Amino acid sequence: MSVLIFIDHADGHIKKSSHEAISYGTKLATQLNTTAEGILLGTVQDDLAALGKYGVTKIHQVANEQLNNLDAQIYTQVLAEAIQTIKADICIFSHNALGKAVAPRLSAKLKAGLVAGAVALPDTSNGFVVKKSVFSGKAFAYVKINTAIKIISLNPNAFHVTEVGGTATIEALSIAVPSSNIKLIKTEKVTGEVPLSEAETVVSGGRGLKGPENWGLIEDLAHALGAATACSRPVADAHWRPHHEHVGQTGLAIAPNLYIAIGISGAIQHLAGVNRSKVIVVINKDAEAPFFKAADYGIVGDLFEIVPKLTAAVKKLKGMV
Amino acid sequence: MKVLVCVSKTPDTTAKITFTNNDTQLAEAGVQYIVNPYDEWYALVRAIELKEKDASIVLHLVTVGEADAEPIIRKALALGGDEVIRVNTTSTDSFYIASQIAAIAEQGEYDIIFTGKETIDYNGSSVGGMIAELLNMPYIALATKFELNGTTAIVTREIEGGEITEEINLPLVVSAQKGMAEQRIPNMRGIMAARTKPLKVVEPISTEPLTSIEKFELPPAKAGVKLVSSDNVEELVRLLHEEAKAI
Among the CATH numbers 3.30.2020.30, 1.10.600.10, 3.40.190.100, 3.40.50.620, which is that of B2-218? Predict the structure, then answer.
């Protein structure tokens, strides 16, 4: 038995979610008394050997630049061959854009059971059972994988990254890469902002903000906290904010360490997207807002008075003023 | 051109989730069911829009489930589409479901297969990718825009912190999410028409699931909110820093 950890990258840099996957995969290998190795498809600027600090000792690299653009079909072929060559039987992905495209394909190709959206290490005392988030954060399921090869995709921010020190050796893996039929037209990046799905802290605004012209309040607080910004569904539907910032049942589900909801009442559909956040702060003028029932900390009052004070207090704490 | 939209029955977004039978099954009493919002609002509505532009498009819906799914799936059909195919079986894991849909898709020779980006019950985001692999087709996950240009699709999909637009030849599988289309409410004419549209029931192919659910668990209840006075915002920052260690 050995564990293979898929290392995801964009623009030459390793993603934070891959640090989590490496920590998870190496802990799982220790639990099973086996080895964990990484695999990276494509090329990066980052120092791969430095990923050893998260516990991985060897990283296989298929250093073909074509692989810097995702084609899920080709990725699946390459990974299936790699798994066979390396003789891995557990494969770890992040449950992110790439993991959602590739892990299910690989599962179908290898007839390998997949748990998508894992939140904890597997229980291997009797079979192989993985805890995952279900019903949009309202519950968990314990899913047993009944196949020899097993695939897990790990929810972002669900597993704590630990640094154990060390460096990894990089081994070139030679696998033929067929040419892709997908033609890239353009890439649009929201620059200078923290990607919402990976953010440790999220500041989110709702209808209570009264209009897009007031969004500076949310942005100032987010900036002071180094946080990503988000919004509720009515705000996205009214085009006050772009759709990709909508968190909730039909938008993005996130699980940051800290979620600050400002002027959001907390309908059950909104909670479904944020209820896995570790700490929830609610600021709302209505003391009866259902969000307070799901919150850890709250302030009842006028957000237009409270938020600037909060931003100032955060800046003071962080020595920014 | 033939388009297939995969639709699933899920508990309503507002449903309170509890479990029964030693926490191995969803307690269905009092739970209302709906068409999975990602399947309906984004995948199906976008497919209907394509058909509105090009009336020659044949639009089929497919669902994997028991007969109790039929009234719910009829609601999807009230929005549009020519026919529903129901694979008559208990849906187990995503591989089992994908295998059933792939078998239907293979027979029907569809050019585009749409799924929602995930179902709001099992949140796997897995069925679309599995169908694509079983059919050896390309797969674009988490699409926010989809345009057709003859037999070429121009698809925009979400990545961390941005979007990518790609051009790709049909046939393909696409999972749809917010941005693809706007939610529609079925009108009376659609509802009446849906009653008489064909609903074909087919028997499942023989295949084994790869995973099984051992049990469910509810998250621990929150301890209760700690309220801070609006005159003392600095106290909130102190609590978040010292007590919650969140900033």
Answer: 3.40.50.620
